[in-house]
Amino acid sequence: MAAKVDAGKCVGCETCVGACPVEAIKMVDGKAKVDESVCVECGACAGECPQEAIKI
Questions:
Q1: What is the gyration radius of the CA atoms in the chain, in angstroms?
Q2: Are 17 and 26 within 8 A, CB to CB?
Q3: Residues 18, 9, 20, CA angle at the centre, nearest 5°?
Q4: pTM beyond cutoff 0.70
Q5: Which residue range(s) make up the domain with 33?
Q6: What is the DSSP string of 9-52?
Q7: Staple 10 to which of 1, 6, 53, 56, CB 3.0 to 4.6 Å?
Q8: β-strands 4-5, 25-28: how paired?
Q9: What is the arithmetic mean of pLDDT over 10-26?
Q10: With left for phi above 0 and alpha for psi between -120 and 50, is residue 54 left, alpha or beta?
């Protein structure tokens, strides 16, 4: 299951974008959005998110 972003918690800091090794995360309207077809479910983004807005 791909990473899921809680838009209510996401503050748009872009930390997850840099943490993703496969570039599956883009910013859309100031919030992180995961491309589920690219996500490899590694959890790197969830581990780096300072707001704990991403779950695997």
A1: 9
A2: yes
A3: 20
A4: yes
A5: 4-55
A6: T-----HHHHH-TT--EEEETTEEEE-TTT-----HHHHH-TT-
A7: 53
A8: unpaired
A9: 98
A10: beta
41/24 Cα distance (integer angstroms):
10
Note the pLDDT of residue 1: 87
Residues 6+ apart with CB under 8 A from 48: 15, 16, 18, 19
Q: Evaluate whether 54 touches 17 at the Cβ level (below 8 Å).
A: no
Interval 17-26 mean pLDDT: 98
Domain of 39, CATH number, reads: 3.30.70.20
Q: What's the number of domains the chain is made of?
A: 1
